[in-house]
Amino acid sequence: MTSSLPLRYGTNPQQSPARVFMKSGADLPITILGGSPGYINLLDALNAWQLVRELRQATGLPAAASFKHVSPSGAALAVPLTDVLRKIYFVDDLELSPLAEAYARARGVDRMSSFGDFIALSDTVDLATARVIAREVSDGVIAPAYESAALEILKAKKAGKYAVIQIDPAYESGLTESREVFGVTFEQRHHDRPVTPGDLANIVTTDKDIPAAARRDMTVAWITLKYTQSNSVCFVKDGQTTGVGAGQQSRVHCTRLAGSKADLWYLRQHPRVLNLPFKPGIHRPDRDNAIDQFLQPDVTPAEKANWSNVFSSIPAQLTPEERRTWLDSLSGVTLGSDAFFPFRDSIDRAARSGVRYVLQPGGSNRDEDVIAACHEYGMSMVFSGVRLFHH
C-alpha cells in the first residue's frame, strides 16, 4: 500500500496533475490489483463500497452496486432471480452465486445507465461473479478480496486496463471529513449514522401492515439514498432498486425520473419485449438501446427505420392501453426519499408505479396532505426522521 497515488488527471483531462492521498501520511486503504483507476473511478469506488458494506451489515446478505458519476444506477442484495429476470439481465446462460445474483440485479435494472459502470461488491469476488462482469462494458470493480481465478479474469479485461481495486474491509474513516471548494475548506462529521430498526418504527398512516420483505426494501432504499447525489428518490422491489432519480432540484422530478426507470424495468418483463425478434449476433448494448427505444411512446419514423438493423422483423409497439394494463399488475413496491415530500404530487406519481410502501424523513408543513394521499392509495408510510442528503 501507499499513502499517495498519482492519477492521469482529475475530473477532466485539463485538470492535471491529480492524485489521491492520505493527509495523515498513513497508507491508503486500497490496493490497485489491475489497471489504472481515474479520479471519478475512485469517487465511484469509495462511495459504492460504503453503500454495499452497509447493506451487508444491515441485512446479512451479499450486496452489489453499479455506480455512474458518483450515484448508483442500481443497488441490490443477493435475492434469488426469477427466470424472467435472468433473461432480461442477460444471465440466463450462467451459473450464478449469491454475489453474482446481487450484481446481476444491480447492473440489470437500468442497463443503459450502467453502461461503463464502476462496480462495488461486499464479499470476496468469486468466479461466477467475475464471469458476469467480464461480459459487461465496465470501468472497474472494488471489493474486499478476490478468488485467484476471478482475479485473473478481471485483470485480463480491457486488455489489462480494467481497474481492479482491493479495499481493506477493516478500514474506517475518521469522524471528521473535509474538502476544498474554490480554495475554501469545508469540514463536517463523516455521515456514519447506520440504519436502525427504530428508523422504521414511526408508521404514520392508518395502514400499519409492513411485512418483512417491505422492511428489507426500506433498508435498501435508506442506504442507497445515503450515497446518491441529492435530491434523490428510489424505487425498490424484491431487494433491489428498480429506479433511481438522482441530483434533481425538485423532489417530484426525482420521483418522475425514478418512476420512469422503474416502469421501464417492469415493461422489459412484458412477454412482447421478452420475445422481440433480434437478429443473431446483436451485442448487448445495442439490444439495450433498441429495447429502450421500443418502449418509448414517441418513437419517430426515422428512429423506427433503424430498427431493421437490429430486428429481423419490425415489431409492433405496446399500445398505451397495453402499457397501462401491464404496469397496473405491479404491486408491493417501496418508495424511498432522502428528504421530506413538500407536496403530495410525488405520492400521486408513485401510485402509477405500484408503490405500496413509502419511506421518508417527514417534517414538511404539508405532511398531513402527503399522509392523506397515502390513505387514498392504500399505502403505508414511515417517517424515519433522518434526512439523507449527499453532496
Word description of this protein:
- Helix 14 links the parallel strand 14 (355-360) and strand 15 (380-383).
- 35% of the residues lie in helices and 21% in strands.
- It is an alpha/beta fold and 391 residues long.
- The strands form 4 sheets. Strands 3-8-7-6-4-5 form a 6-stranded mixed β-sheet. Strands 12-11-13-14-15 form a 5-stranded mixed β-sheet, sandwiched between helices. The protein has a two-stranded antiparallel ribbon with strand order 1-2.
- Helix 1 runs antiparallel to helix 7 (212-226) and helix 5 runs parallel beside helix 6 (148-156).
- It folds into 3 domains: 4-167, AICAR transformylase, duplication domain (Cytidine Deaminase, domain 2, 3-Layer(aba) Sandwich); 190-267 and 327-383, 3-Layer(aba) Sandwich (Cytidine Deaminase, domain 2); 271-317.
